[in-house]
Model the fold of this input.
Amino acid sequence: MTKTNPQIMRIIEILKERSYQEGAALWKEVARRLEKPTRQGAEVNLSRINRHSSPDETVLVPGKVLGSGSLDHKVRVVALDFSQSAAEKIIGAGGECLDIYQLLEENPQGSGVRMIE
Done:
């Protein structure tokens, strides 16, 4: 079965191209995880990000970030989508909410990025 959302299909295509061009396995792995059925997609709560990240770290979620829990340090979170409460809490903690395109442009190698699913 294939994805029907053209935006997600485009992101997957771009990630695969960038993985090949840059030799960065991270982008290929993110594309693979985004290709999963929607029901198997990642939904990560802020409490998990808080537990598994360090201050000023970049965290990549190949899915949606949900607002359950809190952040006690500044983190850059990159995801396909954010709930409104999650975005407010991330920004309130001094962090940033980015989409995958932004991370691809500023960090083509994908170095120093922690993936949480």
